[in-house]
């Protein structure tokens, strides 16, 4: 279609005026997840639907950046179609394994019921049979297997992780596909020797560890079940890992998450400073702050509103830049919001229960719900479990069942957590409320993510 048959995309965000004499604005296309700076003349032309007066080169650039789109295009349908195609074409078999139902910590906002149970060898064999069936059912389709080790605390089942990894790698070799993994761990058992084994022998490429502020804040909430403090142990583990001469060459990145509510938000900035003082900014891949949410409990009642949290997030990002960190300011396109939307993805717990949502295992309120798909111990390895909650999430957005249908941020959030929406909890990401501030920060602090387009 020619340049004349275009329209300003609905999925565009404009900042307030910037630059000398307030002569420019930043435009962010959530469809392309790219931002450009344009003059006041270009901005007015776009807003008044007079962009045809702009140069052909500029129009071509605006089309390339996703700011101008085909006049007859139904953008929402196009976005949903792109999401569904991406899911259908995903050639990596992604599976989540919870090898242990136990965790050393007794975090007061955690909704899980922990028991000293690790996945049994019998279940391991049946689980491998299930994964084999998934590969057999779609011959020559998959390019790799990728495992997420989750908990409880997965490192409490290190023996089982070793056994499963060996069998998974053998399976990948048999089908001539790649193998990789990541892990979410509390970091309490993450000694340098364990880290080396995870990276070199168990093919773990990334890990996420939680620190809820400095010790003053962290140790009020992330203590052991016996009541012992954990911050100093975890921080020492990380310091020693980053001090390993070959840390960077091991190929396993570490990110740190800080869970925040009204009780510990003042601990974020001191944590950023403490990490910088110990050179963490030179080693970690990412540090981010997340609001505490409901985990089948009322933990969210102690959290800030999304608007309040979004304001604080900007301050924390500035703090990170001032201390040598490089936070991710601008969101990327999200075509798969979580494992629930892909019918091939599943999570298995230490009892063999299968789910297609990571937030429901070991949580009492979800025990006898449709979130429990089945159990590998009793079901056929090729059982498909047709009734999967949340798998039709993209169609639900298209059918206007949730407010995501009209949100300009949809392409870069995918709608957020489908389960939260179904439980009448707003799942909007912080970007919805502070994207303009993030665009300005990105422009002022880096400029590398935003290019200028002139008429």
Key attributes of the depicted protein:
15 strands; globular; 9-stranded mixed beta sheet; 2 domains; 4-stranded mixed beta sheet; alpha/beta; TIM Barrel; 455 residues; 14 helices
What does this structure look like?
The mean pLDDT is 94. The chain has 2 domains: 86 residues, no CATH class; 285 residues, TIM Barrel (Alpha-Beta Barrel), CATH 3.20.20. The protein starts with 5 loop residues before the first strand and ends with a strand. The protein is globular, with a radius of gyration of 24 Å. It is built from 14 helices and 15 strands. Helix content is 33%, strand content 16%. With 455 residues, it is of the alpha/beta class.
Determine the fraction of residues in helical runs and give it as a percent range.
25-40%
What's the helix count? 14
Total number of beta strands: 15
Low-confidence stretches: none
Please give the radius of gyration in angstroms. 24 Å
For the largest beta-sheet, the strand count, sense and barrel status come to: 9 strands, mixed
CATH topology of the largest domain: TIM Barrel
Protein structure class: alpha/beta
Q: Can you list the strand order of the major beta sheet?
A: 11-10-9-8-7-6-12-13-14
Going by CATH, the architecture of the largest domain would be Alpha-Beta Barrel
Alpha carbon gap, first and last residue: 22 Å
Shape annotation: globular
What is the CATH first-level class name of the largest domain? Alpha Beta
In what range is the share of β-strand residues?
Answer: 15-25%
Determine the mean pLDDT. Answer: 94
User: What series of H and E elements makes up the topology?
Assistant: EEEEHHEHEHEHEHEHHEHEHEEEHHHHE
Instruction: Give the domain tally.
Output: 2
| CATH homologous superfamily (4th level) name of the largest domain | Aldolase class I
């Amino acid at each position: 279609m020619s340049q004349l048959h275009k329209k300003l995309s609905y999925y565009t965000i404009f900042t307030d005026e910037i630059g000398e004499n307030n002569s420019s604005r930043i435009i962010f296309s959530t469809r392309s997840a790219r931002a450009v700076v344009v003059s006041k003349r270009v901005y007015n032309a776009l807003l008044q639907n007079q962009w045809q007066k702009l140069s052909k080169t500029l129009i071509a650039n605006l089309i390339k950046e996703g700011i101008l789109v085909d006049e007859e295009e139904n953008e929402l349908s196009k976005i949903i179609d792109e999401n569904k195609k991406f899911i259908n074409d995903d050639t990596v078999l992604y599976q989540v394994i919870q090898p242990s139902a136990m965790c050393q910590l007794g975090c007061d906002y955690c909704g899980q019921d922990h028991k000293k149970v690790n996945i049994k060898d019998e279940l391991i064999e049946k689980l491998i049979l299930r994964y084999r069936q998934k590969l057999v059912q779609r011959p020559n389709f998959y390019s790799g297997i990728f495992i997420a080790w989750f908990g409880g605390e997965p490192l409490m089942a290190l023996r089982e992780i070793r056994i499963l990894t060996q069998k998974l790698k053998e399976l990948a070799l048999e089908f001539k596909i790649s193998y990789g993994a990541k892990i979410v761990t509390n970091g309490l058992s993450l000694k340098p020797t364990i880290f080396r084994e995870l990276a070199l022998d168990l093919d773990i490429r990334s890990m996420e560890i939680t620190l809820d502020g400095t010790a003053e804040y962290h140790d009020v909430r992330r203590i052991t079940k016996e009541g012992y403090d954990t911050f100093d142990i975890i921080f020492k583990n990380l310091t020693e890992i980053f001090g390993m001469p070959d840390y960077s060459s091991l190929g396993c990145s570490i990110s740190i998450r800080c869970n925040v509510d009204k009780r510990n938000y003042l601990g974020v900035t001191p944590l950023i400073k403490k990490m910088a003082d110990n050179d963490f900014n030179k080693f970690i891949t990412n540090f981010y702050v997340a609001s505490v949410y409901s985990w089948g409990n009322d933990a969210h009642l102690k959290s800030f509103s999304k608007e309040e949290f979004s304001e604080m997030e900007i301050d924390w990002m500035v703090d990170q830049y001032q201390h040598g960190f490089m936070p991710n300011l601008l969101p990327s396109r999200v075509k798969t919001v979580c494992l629930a939307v892909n019918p091939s993805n599943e999570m298995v717990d230490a009892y063999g229960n299968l789910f297609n949502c990571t937030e429901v295992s070991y949580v009492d309120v979800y025990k006898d719900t449709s979130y429990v798909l089945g159990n590998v111990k009793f079901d056929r390895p090729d059982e498909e479990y047709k009734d999967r909650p949340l798998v039709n999430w993209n169609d639900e957005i298209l059918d206007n069942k949730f407010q995501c249908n009209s949100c300009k941020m949809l392409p870069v959030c995918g709608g957020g957590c489908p389960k939260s929406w179904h439980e009448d909890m707003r799942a909007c990401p912080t970007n919805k409320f502070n994207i303009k501030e993030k665009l300005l920060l990105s422009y002022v602090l880096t400029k590398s993510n935003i290019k200028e387009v002139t008429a």
